[in-house]
Amino acid sequence: xxxxxxxxxxxxxxxxxxxxxxxxxxxxxxxxxxxxxxxxxxxxxxxxxxxxxxxxxxxxxxxxxxxxxxxxxxxxxxxxxxxxxxxxxxxxxxxxxxxxxxxxxxxxxxxxxxxxxxxxxxxxxxxxxxxxxxxxxxxxxxxxxxxxxxxxxxxxxxxxxxxxxxxxxxxxxxxxxxxxxxxxxxxxxxxxxxxxxxxxxxxxxxxxxxxxxxxxxxxxxxxxxxxxxxxxxxxxxxxxxxxxxxxxxxxxxxxxxxxxxxxxxxxxxxxxxxxxxxxxxxxxxxxxxxxxxxxxxxxxxxxxxxxxxxxxxxxxxxxxxxxxxxxxxxxxxxxxxxx
Length: 339
Prior knowledge:
single chain; 9-stranded parallel β-sheet; two-stranded antiparallel ribbon; 12% strand; globular
């Protein structure tokens, strides 16, 4: 598990403030599990690892979703994927997300990862990547409702924890079966549905259909999480108003912007305030991946953190070519905005 270490005073104070402001009553329940808060870091391959989730949780993300994991990989070499399912106790409730198109493999993989004691198991029915969906997994399962029924009816029977789903609206505009899928999931024991308001064919193009998410919320009696095109504080308010959802899942809009989970506008923060969180995140990454690799992986987060500021091309290049954790840390500390 990742060591939380010592965060900056500013980050700790903010975390304590967020925690103290949480409602005395849960916002909703995932079966018997109370969820405090209505904003959630979305599972994103290559981004939502344990360090990223820890940062998001400290700023108010209500759940920790793992990156999605292939059931075939779990069954083929469980030890090789355990790091992707590593979490810190402070992240709970922890959700493991897996994908496949074969019910028997999903059941077998689930039995293995139950050993790691997650709080919730999520089945990905929404990934639009060709290598996933074209084999009938992820959003590809939306074309085979009978398989979804088999997966959930059998999985719920043997699962000691709640089982949830993340879906899209359908394969394409001619097969918008989201209401049928939502009813099927609820009827077969799903405890929550997270909905990305696009089809598989759309991927991340066009606009997320928040009204369709509202229709799902009006149709089922289990919690519904809205997802798609939430990039600002205004978007949070709008999607909640339109969908009446129980929570809002934020993906790309949270990269380099964990403040969104505490409803703070990153653009209003000084560079020095942002640098404190950058350094916290960098340290967690190097603790998790090791100093030789952690600082390299962190570059994608760093560019996003610095997006609101006028940083010279030369300074950005210096940061992106830093050769060690210590060198990158020093360069971050010394980074200044252009006049």
